[in-house]
Amino acid sequence: MALTDTSAVTRRNKRRVHPVASALLRFLVMAVTTLFGLLAVTFFIGRVIPIDPVLAIVGDRAPQHVVERIRLELGLDLPLYQQFWIYLKQVLSGDFGTSVLTTNPVLTDILRVFPATIELATIGTIIGAVLGIPLGVLAAVKRGSIADQVVRVIGLVGYSVPIFWLGLLALVLFYAKLGWVAYPGRMDIVYEYTFTPNSGFYLVDAILQREWAVVWDLFRHIILPGSLLGYFSLAYISRMTRSFMLNELAQEYIVAARAKGLSETRIIWFHALRNAAVPLVTVIALSYAGLLEGSVLTETIFSWPGLGLYITNSLQNADMNAVLGGTVVIGAVFVAINLLSDLLYRTLDPRTRSR
User: Fold this and answer.
1) CB atoms within 10 A of CB 232
2) CB-hemisphere CA count at 13 Å for 321?
3) What is the distance between the alpha carbons of residues 38 and 46, in angstroms, rounded to a whole number?
4) Is the Cβ–Cβ distance between 253 and 145 less than 8 Å?
5) Which long-range contacts (CB under 8 A, 24 or more apart) does 156-162 make?
6) How many angstroms separate the CA atoms of 323 and 334, rounded?
7) Is the pLDDT of residue 104 over 80?
8) Which keywords are on file for this protein (predicted)?
9) What is the separation of C-alpha 333 from the centre of its chain, rounded to a whole number of angstroms?
10) Whether 206 and 137 share a structural domain
């Protein structure tokens, strides 16, 4: 009898594990396919645009025999499919080539500048989530009211206004006119020679080293671009929160909770929002990934030395190795965050485990 019960439990456990493993395998296949497609599209676009990487290396006045020699050394005389195959093998081994602009390995440059982008995107996501979720809840609870209309207009402006225009306007107002924030950049030039970051995450390093003057300076530099990204994150998160909350407030368990005499505050914040928080995890994760890959204009406007500014400068200087490497890294991070959010969603919501 005991053996029969053990066998039954084993079969049930296998049935539970199989859907999760199958879903994970499908997602991994999709992730690999997406990265391969991103790599292929980026590579071929980089090859067909009217920019000669050889001239970017040797200059316009180099002798023709030097140009031809460099072209042969880089393998640019080969058919495109052979060039792509060589580049694919290099990327899989962690070699993105050498940057023409900095003469450093592209991967070394990316590891140097990417922490600044992560820091900026993290600040923006925190601002967007902390403000966007309460605003979305308010809009759902007060559906059709003035508060709901105001929140929806805030979100609409966040989606509609070009980020470069809003960034320039913010610089004119808060830096040039009011003087509330520091000038564009990551930190004051004075601290660049006295402060030594250990990890590349300046705020974290400054706090750990208890350099409070540096922390304040870093905060004055990051607060404006971080708030700008936070506003666009807020527009997305508040809209999705409103949608999720409206769906939850229409469920039967909310009617039952009200019939039991529970307070409206408890129903909204401890019942409806708790269930709406599960899909919100995916929304916040995708918002964070979007800020990581979409902060190019923000970093350019505020001279923020992150990956977006690095890719922009590389593109302007025909440094295609750096452009391709940065694009691939951003795509890989986006896919990784998407995978993590999907796994977290399945962990928090038991109903999805059997799918």
Assistant:
1) 24
2) 25
3) 12
4) no
5) 156/235, 157/235, 158/231, 158/232, 158/234, 158/235, 158/236, 159/232, 159/235, 159/236
6) 17
7) yes
8) Cell membrane, Membrane, Transmembrane, Transmembrane helix, Transport
9) 7
10) yes
Residue 103 lies in a domain: no
Q: Is residue 235's pLDDT more than 50?
A: yes
Q: What is the 3-state secondary structure (H, E, C) of 213-243?
A: HHHHHHHHHHHHHHHHHHHHHHHHHHHHHHH
Is residue 101 domain-resident?
no
pLDDT of 19 above 80: no
Is the CB of residue 84 less than 8 Å from the CB of residue 44? Answer: yes
Domain containing 64 equals 18-92
Question: What percentage of the chain exceeds 70 in pLDDT?
Answer: 88
CA angle 298, 129, 266 (to 5 degrees): 165
CB neighbourhood size of 86 (10 A) = 13
List Cα–Cα distances, 23 to 26, 28, 36, 284, 353, in angstroms: 5, 9, 20, 22, 9
Task: Identify whether residues 218 and 285 lie together within a single domain.
Answer: yes
Taking only the tens place, the pLDDT of each residue in 283-314 is 898 889 888 876 788 888 898 998 888 988 88
- 314 and 322 Cβ atoms separated by less than 8 Å: yes
Of 151, 152, 140, 147, which Cα lies nearest the Cα of 250? 140
CB 132 within 8 A of CB 236: yes
Mean residue pLDDT across the chain: 82
Q: 11-25, 98-112, 128-142, 335-349: which range is least confident on average?
A: 11-25
pLDDT at 82: 82
Q: Are 114 and 307 in contact (CB under 8 A)?
A: yes
Q: For residue 102, is it within any domain?
A: no
Instruction: Kindly state whether residues 181 and 321 are assigned to the same domain.
Output: yes
At residue 146, the pLDDT reads 92
Q: Please tell me the distance from the alpha carbon of residue 290 to that of residue 105, in angstroms, as a whole number.
A: 26
132-153: average pLDDT? 91
Q: Which residues of 32-67 are buried (b: 16+ CB within 10 A; e: fewer)?
A: eeebeebbeebbeebbeeeeebbebbbeeeeeeeeb
